[in-house]
Amino acid sequence: MTDNPVKTRREGPILEVTLDRPKANAIDLVTSRIMGEVFTEFRDDPEVRVAIVTGAGEKFFCPGWDLKAASEGDAVDGDYGKGGFGGLQELRGLNKPVIAAVNGICCGGGLELALSADIILAADHATFALPEIRSGTVADAATVKLPKRIPYHIAMEMLLTGRWIDVEEAARWGLVNHVYPGSDLMAEAWKLAELLASGPPLVYAAIKEVVREAEDMKFQDAMNRITKSQFATVERLYRSEDQLEGAKAFAEKRDPVWKGR
């Protein structure tokens, strides 16, 4: 459909997901539910290994919640669909790499969407903020996530004042991994996606599950669960063809051929 606010492009094991809602790529309830379906299918399709999420155009990645839609009746506590707002931040069992390619203004729920990715690449004109404080609302997911991703005091300043930061500052605090000229951003995102797609999917799954589950665990408790294969993805990995293939490829001094099984 030409009016679909979520455009997808798939090439082999890579899925590109583009928010395309002029003028600013804001997310309303319908768009969020579509994104939830897209990312659920990505999660469940064994042939797709990596996703890139970005925004259409050169000005906006995503400003988050569509306030115009809210003024027309979209409830802020309405049905966001699978995975919660934007389809990513509460999607259970997502054990595949996701890259956010931030191509412009990234604020509010848009920043929360980017924070739901594993790696954030940004154009050199990208800017970031959490302006919810100015409209009397809470940036809920960012309030949970941001103080764990960048220095506490910087995160609190952004949350409490709504101030904007440019991409250089975002990179300085570790909010983004790499900064590229806007014209190069998507090519670099695809280059990274191709690198990840060539890697071992079962190892990626184990990494993501361990990182997610171990966040609130004591170090030794997490280590004990890993070594005793008490994570489902680790158990699957250690009993897989890929585990044996990795050892064989190393012994034979060749590149491994990962099958995801």
From TrEMBL:
One of its GO terms (molecular function) is lyase activity. GO terms for biological process: fatty acid beta-oxidation. Gene3D superfamilies: 2-enoyl-CoA Hydratase, Chain A, domain 1 (3.90.226.10). Pfam families: ECH_1 (PF00378). Keywords: Lyase. Its EC number is 4.2.1.149. Belongs to the enoyl-CoA hydratase/isomerase family. This is Crotonobetainyl-CoA hydratase. It comes from Roseibium aggregatum.
